[in-house]
Amino acid sequence: GFGFWSHDIGGFEGTPDPAVFKRWLAFGLLSSHSRLHGNVSYRVPWEFGEEAVDVARRFTLLKHRLMPYLYGVAAEAHRTGVPMMRPMLAEFPDDPATRTLDRQYMLGPDLLVAPVFTEEGEVEYYVPEGTWTSLLTGESVTGPAWRHETHGFDSLPLLVRDGAVLPWGADDQRPDGDWLDGLTLRVFGPSTGERTVTVPDLTGATAASFHVVRDAAGVRVTAEGTGRPYRVTAEDSGAAGEGTGTVTVA
Fold first, then answer.
1. What is the CATH number of domain 18-160?
2. Roughly what angle, to the nearest 10 degrees, separates helices 18-28 and 50-80?
3. How many CB atoms lie within 10 A of CB 231?
4. What H or E segment, with its residue span, contains residue 127?
5. Topology (CATH) of 165-249
6. Domain with CATH 2.60.40.1180 in the chain
């Protein structure tokens, strides 16, 4: 498949209905790259009302905070050909329920995205096995299960996989900042185990790596390649710690 794939937010031809445009903003800003582009009419959010501006702002700020994660996934796509936006089957090949899912996807290995395609804001999507956490609300969801939800324009199902460690940027104003400046490692889910997470520089090379161990004693993170301070949060417990070198969250 395509390592990087995107779409014209609001569609290319004609002028979209404002409700369609607002739903499309959330989808487009949770794609590999995002563009407000079309023919005949402008696609700038303020042409579709103040609420559209609010939706564009919310998901743009979110994407900026996610850039250390997303750029790392982009570097992986460049190295391996595994796409940033992945069919559910690619991450869950042993789950037969994922074989026909075509209205949701994994954005990298750890984020499940289910865009809203209905006028009423209703969305039905499948959650694979494990404990998942809504990145927008903090709600915990257990799979395997089908979910039926109703979302406003400023929301959609966006779940983080159990065991994920999201490198979370401090700067929400630009997509190409210094991601090690004020970095937070957000550890999700109750599962125990080990994981190594890398934060790239703007060339896609590894700027720093973090080895994360979670067990009954808590979360322990050891940094390599950087002596700069960073923060660790255990999202299921609310515990947090910060420092350099090795950081432990009990």
1. 3.20.20.80
2. 30
3. 18
4. strand 122-134
5. Immunoglobulin-like (2.60.40)
6. 165-249
